[in-house]
Amino acid sequence: xxxxxxxxxxxxxxGLAACSALESEKIDYKSAGKAPTLEVPPDLTQLSRDNRxxxxxxxxxxxxxxxxxxxxxxxxxxxxxxxxxxxxxAGTQRWLVINRPADQLWEPVRDFWQESGxxxxxxxxxxxxxxxxxxxxxxxxxxxxIRGTIGKLMDSLYSxxxxxxxxxxxxxxxxGTEIFISHRGMEEVYSSSRKxxxxxxxxxxxxxxxxxxxxxxxxKLGVSQEQSKVIAAAGAxxxxxxxxxxxxxxxxxxxxxxxxxxxxxxxxxDRTGFTVEDRDRTAGTYFVRYxxxxxxxxxxSFFSKLFSSGKTEAPLKFRILVKGQGETSTVSVLNEAGAPxxxxxxxxxxxxxxxxxx
Length: 358
Hints:
Layout: H1 10-15, E1 29-31, E2 78-82, E3 85-90, E4 93-98, H2 102-115, E5 120-124, E6 129-132, E7 135-137, H3 145-150, H4 152-155, E8 162-173, E9 176-190, E10 198-203, H5 207-220, H6 225-233, E11 241-246, E12 249-254, H7 258-271, E13 274-280, E14 285-290, H8 302-306, E15 317-325, E16 328-334, H9 344-357
Antiparallel strand pairs: 1-7, 2-3, 3-4, 4-9, 5-6, 6-8, 8-9, 9-10, 11-12, 12-16, 13-14, 14-15, 15-16
Helix pairs in contact: 5-6
Protein name: Outer membrane protein assembly factor BamC
Keywords: Signal
Signal peptide: 1-23
């Protein structure tokens, strides 16, 4: 429910509406469930369990790091740092670069999410991925006299009608670790003109929420509150991403070199609802499929409707190919067999990625 019991206390709430105020600048998450037994969700079951943090000499997949990464050039970007922690930014995307090994960061990052009011449904250290459950930002609730007086009793009757979950990826670099946080959101909307039934549907990812949690994670890792706010407020050079058609195939053109484009596309895929089943950085390929971000797994999502004709279908699999040439890169879609895809689905995927990279 998005109102207080919809019937009980309605008059009282209306009378005090003028005294209510949204604490929009605060974050106070409360998990929507009980602590589960952590297990690998369906979208990760095909990944092997090899040690993710061992540096191999061969091609890179989801369980290893790219050959030759140690010789990768430094990337020009808007960077702010304190000590061994810095934040990089490209457009609406931000991530942390930390001069510490991933093994030393996993537990602090895990503790950070639990201290922030979340439960973890994915906690795969060997994959470098953790994901929270769906939780509600209670700071968005009106801070009125009723809640202030009755407190927790009334809290159980209130709901914001929004749920959030966050995925965190830790990627090893020659000098330490990069940490990416991506947000996915759901909102409760009325499904009938009488407004007596509701359904949950996806809402747009929130770059500001991602930035705020990255800032708070910096504090967890030793940066002061004041310094973290200065770093998070630092600007970045404008980024350009546009959709083009080359030889009949839709693709995204980005004003970034391959190293930077590879990072940004990976974050965009996390944000926009695709699951990266595997990746081969040497070939510039992400192997992806879409898993609907539905907390109750009953309602069709935006992407389910986008890629289907209304019938229940198995998730479609694609390869996202990133190619770099100097200081520019392209992103195109291949089908499951690795052939160029110029279908309507490919055009939609390209547009979704381009919109997130702007």
